[in-house]
Amino acid sequence: MNITQPEKDAPLILVIEDDKFMRIQLQRAMEQAGYQVAQACDGEEGLAAYLHLQPDIVLLDALMPVMDGFTCCTQLRSLPGGDRIPVLMITALEDRESVDRAFEAGALDYITKPIHWAVLRQRVRRLLQASRAVEDLRQQTERAQRSEERLRLALDAAQMGTWDWDLQHDKVIHSETTEAIHGLAPGSFEGTFKSFLKSLHPDDREGVTQSLQSALVEGADYNIEFRVIWPDGSIHWVASKGQVYYDNFGQPVRMTGINMDITNRKQAQEELQRQNLRSQLFAEVTLKIRQSLHIEDILQTAVNEVQRILVSDRVLIFQLGSDGLGKVVTEALAPGYPSVLGCKVTDDYLASEYLSRYRQGRVYTIDHVEKADVPACFMEFMQNFQIKAKLAVPILLKEQLWGLLVAHQCNRPRHWSSFETDLLKQLADQIGIALAQAQLLEQETHQRQELARSNTELENFAHVASHDLQEPLRKIITFGERLQSKYGEVLTEQGCDYLERMQKAAERMQTLIHDLLTLSRITTQAQPFVAVDLAQIVQEVLSDLEVCLEQNQGQVEVGELPTLNSDPLQMRQLMQNLIGNALKFHRKGELPKVRIYSQSLKGENQSVSGDAAKPTHCQICVEDNGIGFDTQYLERIFQAFHRLHGRNDYEGTGMGLAICRKIVERHNGTISAHSTQGQGSTFIVTLPLQKRQSG
């Protein structure tokens, strides 16, 4: 675990990622955005880092060994403060089941690999902003609760507003504090029960009356909360408690009590409820939007969900064109109203000052169209489509204005609340993110199509090479043999030498074409992976090399070899090239000796020790006592057409090890070698024991 600190007061981001290269990329991206970064390489270390550092946000890889991201997120939520920290899940999985698991584990958002860094920075910024807003609201609620407790203590000490109701004479006395709670000046209360009821909110009068009657007739407790309307029209909340007093006949004659203004507490509670509702709606709609990566589906889902939540008559998405104009591309419409789908918007309607504000993230609201100060042409447009009220928020794609998310009320004017405005802004942000992902998918799909087209062309080339290029060579070889057999006796010694050179050149060209075809077919004509016994493959290769072994008097020692999930034909090609090279490049005057063996690994470079460690990779080693090579040429020997020795010394096209590397890479592995010139070489192939097929 390590932590960098660009700025002292910058938010701290904890990156939990098992891939070292990805951790470095995430660290650099977050540092460039001005954040502090802490790293952890697995889930257990990440949980320990969280307890020690208390970060502001966690970027969590979903797929990690030992403890995956879903389990880590679930355990994180059970730690102190873990239920409040935002978690952004990073995953290469795009299926719905994985998305559902991420949200069920407690993640607030997720992003798929490959990562678009601008999108990641925007999501981190949004999550931090939302987290800070929720934390501020929680602190406000705690302060309000503490304030209420102090007020209750004050009430117990008779320091709050009091009231006294004389039932026999219908005379109500309010203290100055109670009058203030009702928004009245000292001494201005009329002093009757009717005037008291008149100050209450119309929706609460019946409840207060019933509660008073229950206390007077049944002896029930009078402990109620209600709203009062001040003379200035503002609404405030009051908590009231009362006690009934009776005469000598079980008859009520008096009722006294105390009042407390709880408006701040109620407002905090209502705001918290709105925040919770907004968070719930935001999560639900975000999940629905993200279920598709097709732009049309994303936009249609967005307008349908916004119309359902806002209960508005029309919700549309307007896309801005490159020329500054645009049109309505998606719409959700209540029955009975004209559609604006496909309607083009000219610069007369969308003035430059509006675009400038939208680009800055500003929101545009009209509560009453007929009272709004808008251009005449725009007013005509809204009247034609029966628009009485409007709410528009910008959709930003990669920090550029892409379009607008717009809600219309057509049956009446409407005041758009801050709750509705904030929710729509958050959803517009999610639409922008979803659009960015959809564009990436389109680009990736296009790239895949181009790759498929390229592979098809390569296959066509392979067909041409296998037939059209080899046919002339076969004729050269055939007619050369005929020339040798019929006219060899009459040719001069120099003529025979020329003919022999021509024959060998044609044979080398034929071998080179064969090797090129083998290299190209590693991916274009690859076979599905199956369980392959390497020991059996090696025995088959040694059987094919029997003549070579007899000629060189070579010895091959085969140790224990694993069974791998792989392409059997390519595994045979790999082993044949490695063993063939080991026998070919032997030292003169010394019999070639080759040793083939394997060892298991539990990590990329960690050998397995004991039965407790579970191996994840294996190494296949081909060791010889041949001529060796200078290690400065290590990378060169795996490149096509590169040779370290002359053709007169050792036959070959320089393609064998290039083919080996291509095969190993297709199997998600690596190949390397170490050698000492004149003392032999060891070629090492590292392959996963269980790995998905690639290429």
Could you describe the 3D structure shown?
With 695 residues, this protein is of the alpha+beta class. The protein folds into four domains: 143 residues, Rossmann fold; 109 residues, Beta-Lactamase (2-Layer Sandwich), CATH 3.30.450.20; 150 residues, Beta-Lactamase; 162 residues, Histidine kinase-like ATPase, C-terminal domain (Heat Shock Protein 90), CATH 3.30.565.10. Helices cover 46% and strands 21% of the residues. The protein is built from 18 helices and 24 strands. The strands form five sheets. A six-stranded mixed sheet has the order 1-3-2-4-5-6, sandwiched between helices. β4, α3 and β5 form a beta-alpha-beta unit. The longest helix has 70 residues. The relative contact order is 0.05.
What keywords describe this structure?
Beta-Lactamase; 4 domains; 695 residues; Rossmann fold; 24 strands; 6-stranded antiparallel β-sheet; 6-stranded mixed β-sheet
| Overall spatial form | elongated
CATH topology of the largest domain: Heat Shock Protein 90
Compute the average pLDDT: 81
Residues in β-strands, percent: 15-25%
CATH class of the largest domain: Alpha Beta
User: In which order are the strands of the major sheet placed?
Assistant: 1-3-2-4-5-6
Distance between the termini: 35 Å
Secondary structure tally: strands: 24
Helix-strand category: alpha+beta
Domain Response regulatory: 12-128
EC number: 2.7.13.3
Keywords: Cell inner membrane, Cell membrane, Coiled coil, Kinase, Membrane, Nucleotide-binding, Phosphoprotein, Repeat, Transferase, Transmembrane, Transmembrane helix, Two-component regulatory system
Family: In the N-terminal section; belongs to the phytochrome family.
